[in-house]
Design brief:
The chain has 116 residues and is of the alpha+beta class. The protein has one domain. Helices cover 19% and strands 19% of the residues. It is built from 2 helices and 4 strands; from the N terminus they run E-E-H-E-E-H. The strands form 2 sheets. Strands 1-2 form a two-stranded antiparallel sheet. It has a two-stranded antiparallel ribbon with strand order 3-4. The longest helix is centred in the N-terminal third of the chain and has 17 residues.
């Protein structure tokens, strides 16, 4: 395992009221903070490349959503699934939008990937 890589693990909640964890080396946590700062300054989203402990790379996207209705229309972040497919039974914010919940990827559609 290379020590110069940005090693970061992001563990999502299994279900509501459970913990989530972000764990990484110092360099990765500083880069994550930089992405958060960039998203705050740009008012939209930022992305960066990180590595899990097996040195497999992946993109992390940090987004800021100012519109509460847009935020409420996103699917819940839980990994728990009921039945054979995710029927979004944990989604509470449906309101009058028959197409909700939306995949969180929709808020990152215009995010440019960082140059390597």
């Amino acid at each position: 395992m290379s020590s110069d890589l940005l090693h970061l693990h992001v563990y999502a909640q299994h279900s509501n009221h459970q913990e989530s964890f972000i764990v990484g080396n110092k360099e990765a946590l500083l880069e994550l903070r930089n992405l958060i700062d960039k998203a705050l300054m740009q008012g939209t989203a930022a992305s960066g490349k990180f590595f899990s402990s097996d040195d497999e790379g992946y993109e992390v996207y940090v987004g800021m959503v100012n519109d509460q209705d847009v935020f409420n229309s996103l699917e819940m972040p839980y990994t728990e699934q009921f039945g054979d497919k995710n029927d979004h039974s944990m989604f509470l914010n449906l309101k009058n939008d028959p197409n909700a919940p939306y995949d969180v990827v929709t808020i990152f559609e215009n995010t440019k990937r960082e140059e390597e």
